[in-house]
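Section 5.1 Outputs to date
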Amino acid sequence: MSFQQGLSGLNSSSKALDVLGNNIANSSTVGFKAAEVHFSDVYASSLSGGGASQVGIGSMVSGIQQSFSQGNITATNNTLDISINGGGFFRMDNNGSVTYTRSGQFHLDNAGYIINDQGLKLMGYPADANGLITASNPVDLQLSASQIAPRATSDTLAGNMTAQLNLDSRNGVPSVVPFNYANPSSYNFSTAMSVYDTLGVAHTLTLYFQRTAAGGDWNVYGTMDGATPQAIATTAGLPAGGGAAATVGGGALAFTSSGALDTPPAMPLTLPTWALSTGAVSPWSPGRIDFTGTTQYGSASSVDRMTQGGYTTGSLTGLSVGADGIVQGRYSNGQSRNLGQVVLATFASPNGLQSLGNNQWAATTVSGPELVSAAGTGSRGVLQSASIEESNVDLTAQLVNMITQQRNYQANAQTIKTQDAIMQTLVNLR
């Protein structure tokens, strides 16, 4: 009599119960992937070959495979909780070696690195000082907490200032002539905007608009922080302000009979310079201003749009992670800047990955080499910030499978009991 079949069945069922128990234990583990046991039958080898009469000698575990199906995505309150919706793995620096995970519970350490609960560092593409990201070899993502450098309004990267206004066509020549910025009766309309010098210090640039004649052109003057006003686009200069009378900026603002800005003067206009005492470049000009789009209609003078590209320095106030994995910092000056980009790794055979525990896997020859790129490219999924991917364990199915394996275990135990009873009968023969 052979007990091999029943014993192998007990071993197989026991292994299946171990796997089911592990799945159930990790049903609440973020990023966990359920495993299932594969079985195969066992036959004894024979020199004379097999045949229809060959009897099997039991079963064996042929493999344990993990299911990399998508888990449910749940929202959290942590911006650096990142879930993968689709294929791919996070690339982690595990003390110099590279491992992979689907668990996206991250936070910052005291050096600004994005790490998980085990201290492993998240890897991705770095960004330069201007926020430009270039695909290269992934590195540990480190977010700088330093202040963002200011940008002067005059910086070429800031672009030209723009001012789109409507100047009331019904206005006549001011009651006081010539222009004197201290006397509102010497101009028809004024507006102001903030500009920033090379150290990020804010200054107030005030523009004054003066009608030259009924139905005529408009002179434009400017002052910064109440300093001596200067002509920006005039034909009369500054007889009451300081500075010689001259044609500036190609002449005053002229309009067609339809209210559109006429061709002269050519845009954009270069603003004059003013002396600064902040330690920045002095004398300094805010750059150039473009009045294109300004109109002269029969309605009250108003500002439709005024823009400038400068800003003061700012401190990091928050983070966001886009679907493409770009980590962006938000600063107290209203600016945002790219700080890095999370990458995803894919494999030809994910089931070939070696499980290391702590939701980490390692590449093997069976899995094939990693293929690394940005999220949302190829077969890689997209990322979702402030969310986690739950375990893909179907708890109901696992409990049903556990009942099934329990019955299998009992049945195999019964075969051993039956074999023992038969053996006892043979022993008792006289």
